[in-house]
Amino acid sequence: xxxxxxxxxxxxxGDRQTRREAVRILEVISREEVxxxxxxxxxxxxxxxxxxxxxxxGKCGYEEGVDKLCEMLNDNHPFVRMNAAKALxxxxxxxxxxxxxxxxxxxxxxxQKEAAESLREMDEIxxxxxxxxxxxxx
Length: 138
Fold this sequence. Notes:
Elements: H1 3-13, H2 16-26, H3 32-41, H4 47-60, H5 66-72, H6 78-91, H7 97-103, H8 109-122, H9 125-137
C-alpha cells in the first residue's frame, strides 16, 4: 500500500488522533482519491478533522463541494465554520456569496473575519458592500 493510500485508510478508519494526523497530511495533496476522502471527512464526528478537511478542499479548489461547505457554515464548532468560510473564499464560487454574507453575523468573531476575508477575495460588489457594512458596525 502506498503512502497516500495508507493516509486515506487512516482518515477513514483510524482513531481520532490518527484521523487528525492523516487529514493534516492529506489536505495539501490535490489528487482525486484524496479529494474524495476529504469530502467524506466533512462528516467526521471530530470537529478538527471536519475543519481541516474543509480547508483542504478549499486548497484543492473543489467546486463540487461548495454546497456542502456552505452547510458547514452552520456547524456547531467555530473551527469548522471558520475553515468552511476560508475554503469557500479559496474556491471563489459565486453561489456561496449569500452564505458568506450570513456568516458575517456568526457568533464567533473568527468566523466573521474569515467570511469577510473570503468575500473580499471573491471581489463581488454585493459581498464587498456587505463587508463594508459589517466593518461599520464593528
